[in-house]
Amino acid sequence: xxxxxxxxxxxxxxxxxxxxxxxxxxxxxxxxxxxxxxxxxxxxxxxxxxxxxxxxxxxxxxxxxxxxxxxxxxxxxxxxxxxxxxxxxxxxxxxxxxxxxxxxxxxxxxxxxxxxxxxxxxxxxxxxxxxx
Length: 132
Known about the structure:
rod-shaped, 5-stranded mixed β-sheet, mainly beta, 53% strand, 11 strands, 4-stranded antiparallel β-sheet
């Protein structure tokens, strides 16, 4: 790197090798929303995964909830948004409140998504993917 200065009194040059280092903005995981509430009729919700840093964000989703499925388990993103469909299946479940956690792990951090679902006693369960 060189700095050159010139004016009516002359010129001067200063050289500073490896003086300025340009660093890449690190990957940073952003997930929205971080709480999903499946009321008594909702069967599908969405979460968005974004990289609000630089570089390539690689992520993996893990969940061990028997009444829940996700359409994507892993991905990569630079600046685009990855949208994941979360589907609940109330079939053969007893009435009550259900909770669980989805964990998204990445090279830019980890985020937990809290899931709540309610099944009323007098309700006929809607099939997965039923329009809300």
